[in-house]
Write a structure and sequence with these properties.
The strands form two sheets. Strands 2-3-1-4-8-7 form a six-stranded parallel sheet, with helices on both faces. The two termini are 29 Å apart. The protein is an alpha/beta fold. Strand 5 and strand 6 form a beta hairpin. The structure holds adenosine-5'-triphosphate and magnesium ion (MG). Magnesium ion (MG) binds next to helix 1.
Length: 253
Amino acid sequence: RRVSDDQMRMLIVGSPGSGKGTQSTRLLKHYDFSVLSAGDVLRSHIQRKTDIGQRADAVIKQGGLMPDQVMMDLIGAEVKTLGAADWLLDGFPRTLGQAQMLDEMLDAQKKPLRLVVNLDVPEDVILDRILQRWTHLPSGRVYNLSYNPPKVEGKDDVTGEPLSKREDDNVETFGKRLKSFHAQTEPMLEHYRQKSGSVIDIDCRTQTSPDASTTSSQDLFVNLRGDTSNQIWPHLVAIVQSRFPALKSASSS
Ligand code: ATP
Ligand code: MG
C-alpha cells in the first residue's frame, strides 16, 4: 500500500488539434502510465461496428458531441479498471457535465484529479495542423507532414500499416468542432480554473527554460500557451516530472 498519494491522475485538455494526442504519446515514450483517449475509444467502436460505434460515426462526421452519460459510462468504467495505476485522460471530460460526473466518481473513491493541463494554442495555427495531419487509426498515432512526418511516407512507424485522414479533419467539420470547443469545453476549463488553488499560466513562446518549481503540489490547473508542440513539450515534461516524481520510466523496447 502506498503511504502517500503519488498516483498520476491527470487530464490533458485543449482545442481540437491542440496536440493532446501528440503530447500524450511523447510522454508515453518517457514514462510508464495509461492513456485513455476518448476519441480513440470512439474510433475503435466505429471500427468494430458496435452500437456505440454506429452512433459515434454519425456524431463525429457532423462535428458534434456524444451524450455526456454515454461518455461517462465508457471512460468511467475504464478508469475504474485502472485502479491505483497511473493514468492520463485525453479528450474526456470535454463538457462541464462530464467534468462533474467524473469529479463525483473520483471524489467518491477519494482519488481526486491531481493535474489538469490546458494546451492553449492559437486558432490560426491549428487549422493548418489539422489539414496536414495523418493518423494511424488503430493506435491513434498522429503524424504531421511538415514537422512530424512518418519515417516511411504514408506508413505508421510502429506497425508499417497505412495512414489515413480522419473523416472529421476537414475545414467544414473542423469549424464545428471548434464551435463546440468554445461552447462546451471552455465552461469546463473555467470550472477547473476555479477549483484550482492558483492558476499557473506559462507562455511557452517566451519562456525557454522551463521552471517546474513554478507549480506546487497544490495546483490543479496549468495553462501552457504555445504555437508548436516543441515549445510546449519541455514545460509539460518538467511539470509532469515534478508533480509525479514516482512515475516509472518507460521500459525501453
Ligand atoms: P484532436 O484529436 O485533434 O485533439 P478532437 O479533440 O476534436 O481533436 P477527438 O478527441 O479525437 O478529437 O474526438 C473526435 C470526436 O469524437 C469529437 O469531435 C466528438 O464528436 C467525439 N468525442 C470525443 N470525445 C468526446 C467526449 N468526451 N464527449 C463527447 N464527444 C466526444
Ligand atoms: Mg485527439
